[in-house]
Fold:
Amino acid sequence: MKKISTRQLLFFLACIMPVGKLVLLPARLADTSKNDLLFPLLVSYLVQAAAIFCALLVAKKGMTFYELLANTFGKIVAKILITLFAVFLLFAAFLPILEQKLFVQSVFYDTLPSFVAFAPFFLFAAYLLSKPLTSHGRVWDILAPLSVVGILGILILSLSSADFSALAPVGAAGWKGFFRGTMSATAWFFDAALLLPLLGTFRYEKGLAWKGTVCYLAGGAVVALFVAMFYGIFQEISPNQLFAFTATSKYFSGISMLGRIDYIFIFALGLVMSFYVTLPLKESIECVLEAYGRPRYLPTLLALAVTALFLALVVIFDYRFTEVLGFFTETVFWIIPIFSVAIPPLLLLLRRKRHAV
Amino acid sequence: MKNVTGDLDKTGEALKKLLPAEDFLTFDFPAEGGIDFCILFADALTDKELLGEQVIAPLRAYRGKPLAEEVKSALTSPETKTEKSLEKLAEEVLIGNPVVLFSDMDMGIVVGTKKIPVRAIAEPPTDVTIKGPREGFIEDFKTNTSLIRRRLKTGELKIDTLSVGRRSSTTVAVCYLDGTAPKETVEQIKKKLGEIDIDIIPDSSYLTHFLASRPYSLVKQVGTTEKPDIFCAKLAEGRVGILADGSPIALTLPYLIIEDFQSSEDYFVPPYRATFTRLLRLFALVVAIYLPAFYVAAQLFKLQLFPVKLLLTIAGSIRDIPFSPSLEMLLVLLVLEVLNEASIRMPKYVGMALSVVGALVLGETAVSAGFVSTPAIIIIAFSGIGLYAVPNLIEQTSVLRLFMLLVAGSVGTYGIILATAFIILYLVTTENFGVPLVAPFSPMVGRDLRDSLIKYNLGSLDKRPRTLHSPNKRRLA
Structure:
C-alpha cells in the first residue's frame, strides 16, 4: 500500500482527532473547571498544536522515528527509546479504550450490561492491528466525512438547547480549577505523539507543518464549540453527563416524534472512535517492528498479543473505571506530556551522528 | 504421425483417430483435373451450404496442379489458411471449420465456414433502461465484437484473442483502446489469462476467479456488463474489457465499486437527476443491508431507537409472536430468499402465481396466524426492494444483510458498527490491478468525484478518471 497522503493526514488531524475528545473529556473538564472549562481545553490544544507543528517539521528529514533516533543515539539506545515509546503508546491507549467500552455499554445497550457487549471490539482490533499502518490513511478518507457529518449533526440538533451565558462569569473556578482542568485534560492530549510513528509513512510537502497545525486547531475549535454547548445545556449537572456527545442532542424537539434520530450521528461517531482508539496500539506495534525487524509471523503475533493484553486489562478493570480515570488524570498526568509535548521539539534538535546508520 | 503427409488415406485415418466421434464426417471426391480431395468437417458446426458453394463446387471444377496456394486461390471463401500439424487441423474441425486435404500435398487447407447457432440481439434482462441504447451482448463472440466495433470505429481498438480451457478451448478476447488503457494493466490481464489452467470455461464468470486479487472474497472485484454501450464507455475511460465466447457477460477491469451505483441512463438524463438517483441507490443499498439488522438490534438491546408511538405499535404487533425478534426476522428473510430464488427459476406464468402465493397467502396468513409480525414483513419487504436498486451487487448485498442480521441478533447495535468497520477496512485495503476498489472515495481523488455518487455536467468530465492511470488523460477537447 502506498504512503499516507497529505490530505489523509490533514483529515486525521482535523476530523478524526477531535472525536476522541467528545466523550468523557467535557464532563471531566466541567467537573474540574466548572464554567471555565474552555480555558484548560484551549491551553491543551495550543500546547499540542505547537508539538504537532514540531512533529510535522521533523517529517522534513524524511526519516522514520526509529531512524531519527538510531542516527543520533545508535541502534541500541534507539531500540531502548523506541520500546519505551511503544510502551507509552499502549499506556496512552488504555484510557480511551476503557472510555470506549463504557460508552458502548451505556449508550448502545439497555439490556446487555456485561462485558459481552464490548468483547467483539477486540476481534475488530486484532484484524485492524494486522493491517499495515498506511491502510489507516485510506480509512481516514472514509471516516473524515463521517466524522464531519456526525459532529455537525450533533451540533445542529443540540445548539438550540444551549444557553451560552452559563459560561459566564469568566474565572469563577479560579486558578485552581484551571490547573486541575489542564492536568486532567492531559490524558486525552497525546495527539503529537500519535504523529511520531507516522513519520516516514507520509511525504513532507511544502507548508505541511502549518497546514497540519491549522487543521488540528480547526478541529479544536469544533471541540471547543461542542464543549461550550455541552456546558450551556447541562450547566451544573454537566459533570454527571459522562458521555457528552450522546447526551446533548436528546433534548431536540423532534425526537419525541421521530425517535432518537441523533443516534444516526452517534453511530457515525462511534464508528470513527473504534478506529481512533485502536491507532495507538497499531503504532506501538509498528514501533517495535521497525526497531526489531519484521519476521514473517511477528506482525500477526504482536497484533494478537496486544489485543489479548488489552482484553485482559479491560476485563481486570471492568468495574474500576473511576479509579483508572483518577490514576490517569491525577497521579500519572505528567507522563503523557513528556512523550507528546517534549519529544517532538527535541527531535527537531537531533543531529545526525557521524558514521551513524 | 504429427503432420499431414501426401498420402490422403493415411492422413485421413490419423485425423479420424484424433476425432473418432461419429459426427465428424469426411467427404471424398475427385476433381476434374484428377486430384483426389477429402474434406473433414463437424456435422453440426459447419455451414454445409457455404461448404458446397465456396469449397466443393470450385474444387470439383479444379484443373490445376496439386499446390496448396493454387488450390486456395481456387476457393471462393474469404477465410482460408494452410496448416501442416494434424493436431491444429483437428482443433479447427472442432470449432467448425472444415479441413480440405488432397493427394500429394503435405498440408491441409482450413476454410472458415463454421456455423454457430446464435440468438437475436435483445435487451439484457439484468440491465434494462428507459433511455439509451437497448442492445445487449449475446453468446456469440463474433457478434459481440461487431457490436463493439460498431461503436468504436478506430484502429486503436485492439481485440487480442487467446484460447483458455484445456477442453473447451474457449476464445477469450482482451479488448482495449491502445494508448488509452495502461499497458501494464493490459499485460497483467493477458498474463493472468494465459496462466489459467482449467478444464472448461463455460462462462466469463469463471475468469473472474483468476482475475481477482482476492479470489475467495465476497467482494466483487471484476466489473460486468451485458451492454455494448457501457462496455465501450468503460474502454474509453481506460479500462480493459474481456469477452468470452459463449457468454453474454463482458468483464471490465479495473473495477471500482462505484460503477455499480451508476447506470448508463445517468448519462442521458440531466446531471442533477443522475446525482439524485445515484444517491437513492446508495440509500436503498444501505436500507437493504441495515434496516432488518437495526430493527432487531433495537428490539433486543435498545428500544430507545424507536419513537414512542412506533414502539407502542410494534409492541402490540409482536406481543403474541412465538419467536425472538432475530429468529422471526431470519425466518421472514429466508422465506423471501426462497421465494426470490424460486420465482427467478420458474417459468414466467408460474412465477406470477408464486408471487401471489408468496406475498398474499404466505405473508397474510403468517401474520394472522401470529407466526410473524406485520412490522417484520414490512421491513423485509422494504429491504427486499432496496436490494434490487443496485442489481449488480445483489449477491453480495443479500449475504451482507444476513450477516448483519446475525450480528445484530447476537451483539446488537455496536456489533453492527463493528461489522461496518470491518467492511470499511476490508474494502479500503482491497486493490485489483493497482486500483483501489473504493476509489475515488479512498484514496480520495477529487476530480474523479465528479462522476461518482454525484454526477457533473458532461462538460466538466473533460479528463479520464485519474484512478485508472490512463496515459491518455484528456477526454474532451
Notes: Chain B has three domains: 8-111, 141-267, 271-429.
